[in-house]
Write a sequence for this structure.
């Protein structure tokens, strides 16, 4: 050994690999979630949905959507510059769908992305945890104006999922968020089903009895108009929609 120099140490490559794997496991270790408890309005890492007054009476697929923290607390965008925490703004949760945190991307740095859209994800905004993504979206949306057609509760949830790069996708929007919770969501109980569809059934029966087939045609037209707007605005006129 030469004077003034430190001794050279051989580094075992296997040790380096094991250390890196251990660090990666620590960074992505996810603690267990509590059980879903509808009575306490606790839905850990879930998308939650409830019907809207009047609007859902005419189009039962339309509703209000929120997303839940890891402890089950509901968070939703309920109005201009307003984020509601603790419960959905328009009623108790009727449907829920629990998401898998293992499908999220929590990169410690640009090289640590597990999704394929590393640069796009970094530019949009990443998160180190599930709750961190919801917190970042909350800070963004609490300064936005609510618009039911261009910037609404679905937009807020889509923003959260894009920050998580959930499912390896950065293309979450109002339409596929709604389709996800409606197609895969579970009903809380039987009364939730009645609360969601009974007003629509009553409206259809009463309207048909009083007006006739013209009322049913009007309901169908309203249904197509609402669905058509969101599909066209989302996929054909991207500059109209805020995320």
């Amino acid at each position: 050994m030469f004077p003034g120099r430190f001794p050279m140490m051989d580094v075992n490559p296997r040790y380096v690999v094991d250390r890196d794997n251990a660090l990666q496991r620590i960074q992505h270790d996810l603690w267990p979630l509590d059980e879903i408890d509808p009575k306490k309005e606790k839905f850990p890492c879930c998308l939650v949905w409830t019907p809207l007054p009047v609007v859902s009476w005419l189009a039962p697929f339309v509703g209000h959507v929120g997303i839940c923290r890891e402890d089950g607390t509901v968070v939703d965008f309920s109005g201009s510059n307003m984020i509601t925490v603790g419960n959905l703004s328009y009623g108790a949760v009727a449907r829920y769908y629990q998401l898998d945190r293992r499908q999220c991307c929590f990169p410690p740095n640009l090289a640590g992305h597990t999704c394929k859209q590393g640069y796009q994800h970094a530019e949009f905004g990443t998160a180190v945890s599930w709750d961190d993504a919801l917190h970042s979206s909350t800070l963004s949306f609490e300064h936005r104006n609510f618009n039911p057609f261009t910037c609404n509760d679905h937009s807020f949830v889509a923003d959260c999922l894009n920050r998580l790069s959930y499912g390896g996708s950065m293309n979450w929007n109002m339409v596929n968020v709604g389709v996800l919770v409606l197609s895969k969501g579970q009903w809380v109980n039987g009364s939730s089903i009645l609360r969601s569809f009974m007003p629509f059934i009553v409206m259809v029966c009463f309207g048909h009895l009083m007006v006739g087939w013209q009322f049913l045609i009007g309901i169908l037209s309203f249904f197509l108009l609402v669905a058509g707007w969101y599909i066209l605005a989302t996929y054909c006129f991207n500059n109209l929609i805020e995320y």
Summary: The two ends are 62 Å apart (CA to CA). The chain has one domain: 35-240.
